[in-house]
Amino acid sequence: MSVLEKVRPERPATEARERRVTDEHGRRIRAGELAWRYLLLLAVLALTIGPFLWQLSTSLKGPTEDIYSSPPRFLPEHPTLHNYARVADTIPVWDYALNSLKVATANVVTNCVGSALAGYALARLRYRGRGAATLVFVLAMLVPVEGIIIAQFTTMRELGLNNTLIGVVLPGAVGALNVLLMRNAFRNLPYEIEEAAYVDGANVWQRFWRIGLPSVKGTLAVVAIFAFMGAWDDFLWPLIVLSDPSKFTLTIGLNYLHGTFANDERLVAAGTVIAVAPLIALFACLQRYFFRGVGEGAVKG
Amino acid sequence: MAAPLRIRRQLPLSPWLFAAPGLLITGAFVLYPFVSTLVNSFTDRRTLVPGRFVGLANFRELLHDDMFWTGLRNSFLYVLGVVPALVVLPLLLALLVHKNIPGITFFRSAFYTPVVASIVVVGLIWVWLLDERGLINALLEAIGIGRIGFLSDQWLLLLSAMAVTVWKGLGYYMIIYLAALANVPRELHEAAAVDGAGPVRRFLSVTVPAVRSTMVLVAALSSVAAFKVFSEVYLMAGPSGGPAGEDTTLVMLVQRTGTGLTGRVGYASALSVVVFVVTVALMLLVLRADRKEES
């Protein structure tokens, strides 16, 4: 069950008829309390969303407009997309976006396939060494990435994959946490249906594909979304493994833009908006799974 | 658990085929690098030069490396600065969005947005906000306080980076707390209210004990994450770690020492071993503190 579902118990049916505001137990909230609650909510909203809006506003301000004025001017006087065209002239930002998209998509595919298969094997199949195989993933989950990043870099060099997008994807291609999440999802399914399918002559693959997998779609969606977000947002590993500017992902490209054109705030602002907009859109559409992933990931992590 | 599957006679090969991609990737890119980090820490290996065994030389060098102590200090300061804020503030935020008043799902999602954004985006947004001529200084000047060089002073820089880490983490831990709050029995609050306990009293004597195990979880997660801080400080202080490198964190030092064509892989591996040891120690410390309090 998702975190939000837990948090949001059924609303009382009377709510539609009575216009008063009630809490989760159907008790009325006083107007005074309601007022300060909304006041606080708006204050926090300004703190969390404000910085994004300021960045958006900066990116839309034209070259003649003073972006340093005090008191500050929150809205652009003459909104223009000029800065977005300029980012593309300065760095190949759309190539970087495409590289990020490739890396993120590959990460989604490998994680979904790899963790579903391995999770099914750990949860459902009886074989010698299953305990050892589970232990491998548990240990791997406990290893902090920051502590092995230099060895990952030398490993990539030995394989001749440094400075390639494949090298960016490989270390996280099948996340140990994802494997364990899928294992738990499969374990929570009732055995009876699969036994029936076995009696009917279904082989391992058919049981996995036709019975197991369709029942764990929710967890698979969580794995997919976090794989996408993780790859799209990642910074340290691509920074280490990519050195050729033509191979950069968006985050590395932005770091490069910031380092080289730090004084051009409008340009950097436009770049960050390009990098963050797709994820905010994704989040707006699939919030449920984002929140669910926090619950599942935190308990296991 | 459920009854064991009564399916015994299947090809013994298939489970291994299923697990193979995961085991292969995990073995080659997590466990092998882990072992090779340990091995390399006893060598003088460089990126292009295979190393020789040098015993404890790297660890002895650490003790006399000022930059190592700077990095260790900053990473520990980061834990001290960030963890209390990330244990308390998201809990207060969760209490604020806990009640189902109209529009609350919008606020919950909005508060989570910084979690979704890349740390690079977040870092650059705050570099611009905290700039000498940025929004926050413009506001400070407008109300007569005057401009503050957030990003030019060694300590203000580190504090600013901590604030950014907290800002980005608020929504994540808020969601964890929300799940815990949903399990706090309403009756406890009511009993306390009947006994005449005010909101603060009820928070301390009902809410906090009820979500205590979640607070320990958040402390453990956030302290490990804070100790390994890299991106925030790298983006805000620059690759060299601020004025005279004084804002360098331990992971920044690992990255700076071990990468590139002249990277000192052996020495960076020794630094990485310190990252492991401290990470594990922090986890154990938090969990032990929890158990002590319980008994």
From TrEMBL, chain A:
InterPro entries noted in UniProt: MetI-like, MetI-like_sf
Lineage: Bacteria, Bacillati, Actinomycetota, Actinomycetes, Kitasatosporales
CDD domains per UniProt: TM_PBP2
Family: Belongs to the binding-protein-dependent transport system permease family.
ABC transmembrane type-1 domain segment(s): 97-286
Transmembrane residue ranges: 35-54, 103-123, 135-154, 160-181, 267-286
The organism of origin for this protein: Streptomyces tricolor
Alphabetic keyword roster: Cell membrane, Membrane, Transmembrane, Transmembrane helix, Transport
Coiled-coil spans in chain: none
Gene3D superfamilies, alphabetized: MetI-like
Pfam families membership: BPD_transp_1
Subcellular compartments: Cell membrane
Membrane disposition: Multi-pass membrane protein
Sequence segments annotated as region (Disordered): 1-24
Protein name: Carbohydrate ABC transporter permease
UniProtKB/TrEMBL annotation, chain B:
Name listed for the protein in its UniProt record: Sugar ABC transporter permease
Primary localisation category: membrane
Taxon lineage: Bacteria, Bacillati, Actinomycetota, Actinomycetes, Kitasatosporales
Organism whose genome encodes this protein: Streptomyces bangladeshensis
Family classification: Belongs to the binding-protein-dependent transport system permease family.
Pfam families cross-referenced by the UniProt entry: BPD_transp_1
Domain ABC transmembrane type-1: 72-286
UniProt-annotated location(s): Cell membrane
Domain of life from the UniProt record: Bacteria
Keywords: Cell membrane, Membrane, Transmembrane, Transmembrane helix, Transport
Record has Transport as a keyword: yes
Membrane-spanning segments: 16-35, 76-97, 109-129, 155-182, 203-227, 265-287
Signal sequence segment: none
Membrane topology recorded in Swiss-Prot or TrEMBL: Multi-pass membrane protein
